[in-house]
Target: TetR family transcriptional regulator
Amino acid sequence: MTSEAGLRRGRPGYDQETVLRIAVDAFNQHGYEATSMGVLAENLGVSKSAIYHHVASKEELLELALEQALGGLEAVLSAPEQVPASLGSAASSTQSGSSVSSVSSAEQHQNSPEQRLEQVLRGTIAVLVDKLPYVTLLLRLRGNTPMERTALARRREFDREVAALVAAAQQNGSLRKDIDPRTAERLLFGTINSIVEWYRPGGSLTAEKLADDVIGMVFNGLRN
Amino acid sequence: MTSEAGLRRGRPGYDQETVLRIAVDAFNQHGYEATSMGVLAENLGVSKSAIYHHVASKEELLELALEQALGGLEAVLSAPEQVPASLGSAASSTQSGSSVSSVSSAEQHQNSPEQRLEQVLRGTIAVLVDKLPYVTLLLRLRGNTPMERTALARRREFDREVAALVAAAQQNGSLRKDIDPRTAERLLFGTINSIVEWYRPGGSLTAEKLADDVIGMVFNGLRN
Model:
């Protein structure tokens, strides 16, 4: 990051998206509170006023970043079938016999709660990989300000809807009932969210295989 | 660790253990970097010099706290059978009379790699619940100082040994081979470590049931 900023030093010309991306990297590396607008300006190789040309405050950068993550997650819940092609289909049929393929929206609504749950989890992993720094920031949020608490409330609503899907899949007999839906939902997202801590796109583990691995473990278990 | 004598040497009011516990709560709440010795003194209602009576520096508090977490985890790996009774289960009971020495190779245990893995995971959950604030602190560590990086290296060694157990259990056919052992280990700890984010001892979900839920999901899956 430093060298890139160095190469570009003196060039005006960052758009808001680039400012946001570099800011989020700095927040994730040093912590949001510990990162001043002065440090951000240094990383970008521009003056502080050049950043204020794009955003009113450091908090606005955080808010824009969180919107990237939350907007992506909420889109998954309202239309889980719209998982990026690279992460969809083939593997969902692995051990379950339930094939989740690209079909029309109308048909999707007829999917079982278990199928919807799998779609939502695959979609969540896709968003996580696609928006890795933004989701990382969201997951590290402590709720120190009203804006942060609003973001966390949106995240909790997402979690509640997934817990409801788990409950529905338990009630119709497709998922085991001995684990409380809220506990299951928390363990599911514990598994999925932890991906931000170690997964780096572009390595030998593709996002598609990663999604297959997660779905395989949480639905069918590691046991042979 | 500091000696018993050291623990009791404190001025009226607080011993080192209490100072440590309150410091760790503050680190977890506000972040280690953001928490000054002055703030800690305020939280304790004592002067800064009263804290320096117990520890030489803020970094020593962090080091003592990390030792609580890492020491607990390493003990699990060297003797996974010694999971607190409250967290054991019939499924993880060891073969009779195996006296435990400090070893890491599977051949010195009569248990299968899969059984050892289950014991280690149950032991990890027990440590996590028992040392919740300390493990939370460890998991949030960024490696900003040599001491922090040493702690993270110990943690990675723990992870490596668990990944080796997964690999051994795959090789003998008890665990599925389509998931890379390192990925499986990361997903396992993703699931387990996330517990610090939401689990609070003393609620309706006991530590024993929590361990059963985690083991049930990761080994057998949520599917009925």
Q: What stands out?
A: The radius of gyration of chain A is 20 Å.
